[in-house]
């Protein structure tokens, strides 16, 4: 597994690099924002706070399960700790946007640094309740990470600096690129501190703390405070539910998201106990996963380019199909007594590749069919079944024998992915007659009445 992990990571990174270089040559930077020093300075101020926060988050991925195992907890106990994290994500995710708007976006980013630092420090304890409390704080921190930073940036970009709104996508696109790079590097860094320096699986969590402090300090020193409009939580959720039930496309997207992402959450829990007994370097394996996801994102951009003109719904279908195939593989490669770690590793890489295709495709379709004013409420309803399915899956695993339970869980996940595939098939059929679900056609290749709206 050692050689396979390093080789896969290197090959995937080489493929990503080749695609990125080809993209840079075919689309040289000539937009006005490249020549605007004020905008570039504003971007750098945002990245100084946001990127260390992302690095701290990714560092904690490879060795979380291993740490709990190191503390001699049983798999069913570890499953409950993961459920605490998912349940916390559900609860805090529902109210995080309202909390951030009321408290202030800058204060929320500083609060993220504080709560996530405490969450990391909790990993030093072997007490089960302390670790559970740490997972709950981790859920709060994750909710703040994915709401406060983006909200602060959008407000400053539009309200304070009055930059063109189309430049927002430039900043977030570059942030997504560096997020992928940081994720790959975080796996290697976690492996270095844990294995090469022999500091144990708690080391990555301790290394995360200085990064979180750095993020918080930069936010305090360099950012101005801003607030959002106060919104009634009940009205937000009520409007979101009305939109969900009144538009079949939104309901299908919510179904696909709940089914697909709940499977991914269960994969996040299961990959370590599947590969670790066979001597896999967990940090390098994690880097390989992130490189596969980055390759999927690069392939998505290539597929929707002018050269190929594939539609996002096509790529969403491919992503769900690949996940179903990977989970079907895992039901055989994790058969007790006949385990094949190489096949399992390949299946996990395919799942991550699928995620790289899935998330930009889902993001495009969601922006097209869910109006901005209803998006928060709709997303709250999307997250609820997603996290409940993930928690239910882990609770089922909690009551199973380890080896047979793992294989059975992959079988259940394959069935869930098949349901998602059926929902995607229905959405695919709708997209054939719905211009909103398709990319705009090139000039001269579509009738004006059939043209899709501009991105």
Structure, described:
With 455 residues, the protein is an all-alpha fold. It is 78% helix and 0% strand. The chain is built from 16 helices and no strands. The chain has helices at residues 2-26, 37-59, 64-70, 75-103, 105-122, 128-145, 148-160, 167-196, 203-222, 233-246, 248-275, 282-303, 312-333, 341-369, 372-398, 402-431. α4 packs across α6. The radius of gyration is 22 Å and the shape is globular. Mean pLDDT is 87; it is low at 446-455.
| SSE-based structural type | mainly alpha
Characterize the largest beta sheet: strand count, sense, and whether it forms a barrel: none
Amino-to-carboxy terminus distance: 44 Å
Helix content: over 70%
The overall strand count is 0
How big is the Rg?
22 Å
How many helices? The count is 16
Approximate strand percentage: under 5%
Q: What spatial form do the alpha-carbon principal axes imply?
A: globular
Low-confidence stretches: 446-455
Mean pLDDT: 87
Helix-strand topology string? HHHHHHHHHHHHHHHH
């Amino acid at each position: 597994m050692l050689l396979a992990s390093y080789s896969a990571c290197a090959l995937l990174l080489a493929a990503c690099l080749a695609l990125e270089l080809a993209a840079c040559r075919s689309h040289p930077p000539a937009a006005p924002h490249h020549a605007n020093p004020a905008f570039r300075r504003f971007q750098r101020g945002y990245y100084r706070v946001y990127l260390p926060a992302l690095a701290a988050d990714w560092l904690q991925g490879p060795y979380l399960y291993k740490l709990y195992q190191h503390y001699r907890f049983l798999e069913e106990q570890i499953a409950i700790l993961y459920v605490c994290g998912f349940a916390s994500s559900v609860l805090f995710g529902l109210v995080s946007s309202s909390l951030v708007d009321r408290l202030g976006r800058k204060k929320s980013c500083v609060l993220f640094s504080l709560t996530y630092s405490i969450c990391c420090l909790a990993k030093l304890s072997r007490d089960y309740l302390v670790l559970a409390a740490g997972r709950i704080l981790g859920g709060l921190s994750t909710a703040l990470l994915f709401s406060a930073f983006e909200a602060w940036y959008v407000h400053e970009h539009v309200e304070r600096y009055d930059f063109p709104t189309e430049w927002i996508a430039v900043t977030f696109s570059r942030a997504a690129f560096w997020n992928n790079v940081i994720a790959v590097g975080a796996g290697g860094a976690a492996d270095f501190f844990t294995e090469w320096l022999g500091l144990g699986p708690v080391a990555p969590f301790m290394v995360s703390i200085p990064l979180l402090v750095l993020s918080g300090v930069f936010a305090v020193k360099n950012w101005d405070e801003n607030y959002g409009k106060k919104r009634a939580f009940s009205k937000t959720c009520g409007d979101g539910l009305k939109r969900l039930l009144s538009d079949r496309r939104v309901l299908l997207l919510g179904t696909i998201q709940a089914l697909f992402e709940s499977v991914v959450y269960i994969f996040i829990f299961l990959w370590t106990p599947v590969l670790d007994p066979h001597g896999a370097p967990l940090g390098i394996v994690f880097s390989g996963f992130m490189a596969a996801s980055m390759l999927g994102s690069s392939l998505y951009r290539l597929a929707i380019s002018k050269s190929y003109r594939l539609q996002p719904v096509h790529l969403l279908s491919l992503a769900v199909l690949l996940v179903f195939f990977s989970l079907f593989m895992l039901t055989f490669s994790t058969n007790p007594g006949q385990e094949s770690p190489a096949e399992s590793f390949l299946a996990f890489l395919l799942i991550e590749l699928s995620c790289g295709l899935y998330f930009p495709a889902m993001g495009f379709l969601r922006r097209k069919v869910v109006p901005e004013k209803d998006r928060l409420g709709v997303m709250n309803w999307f997250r609820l079944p997603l996290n409940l399915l993930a928690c239910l899956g882990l609770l089922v695993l909690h009551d199973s024998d380890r080896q047979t339970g793992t294989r059975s869980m992959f079988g259940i996940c394959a069935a869930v992915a098949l349901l998602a595939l059926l929902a995607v098939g229905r959405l695919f059929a709708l997209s054939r007659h719905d211009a909103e679900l398709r990319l705009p056609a090139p000039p001269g290749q579509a009738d004006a009445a059939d043209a899709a709206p501009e991105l």
